[in-house]
Amino acid sequence: MRETAVELTLYTHPMSRGRIARWMLEEIGQPYAVHPLAYGDAMKDAAYRAINPMGKVPALVHGDTVVTECAAICAYLADTFPQAGLAPTAGERGAYLRWLFFAAGPLEACVSNRSLGIEIPEEKRRMIGYGSYEAVVEALDGLLSERAYVAGERFTAADVYVGSQVAWGMMFGTLERRPAFEAYAARLMQRDAAKRAQALDDALAEEMQPKA
Question: Residue 84 has what pLDDT?
Fold first, then answer.
């Protein structure tokens, strides 16, 4: 944990979606504290459920403000710390919001269902927000084949979230590998903030391993 007295505190587990929030915090360059929580009772006790009633991580506390859900954390930090240059310009805002919510909705849902072996029957696809896995993949491939970043030619907070979904999906086999996806993920993972975040969470994961 960072010892500096700060207003930003991340509640997380290093083997969770909290890695997305950590990356975003590294991107904005502001000091923050990390409060690691083990899976199980620590996430479900009353003290933490007062912060996040869902009893899951990550959660970001900024003064009196609590933000949960990784896409929301990315957007909140980009807006709250505009000096980092990760919020969209007026011209980028439409694509930024579109693909940020696309990744948090259709993409997250379809890769989660795929990992669980859930296939949506063709006659039921109109009932599901993402329609089909194939439709989501084609839409994402079309986007990333056309541009370097989701909002245009500049990295924004939306890329932290979308990039994490793409990289993890390919890593765990829930998102098929395509040239556009691999090039996009490789480009993002070369960012200094992404490397720092990964190293910090890897070290925290080692620290939290049960001792023999």
Answer: 98
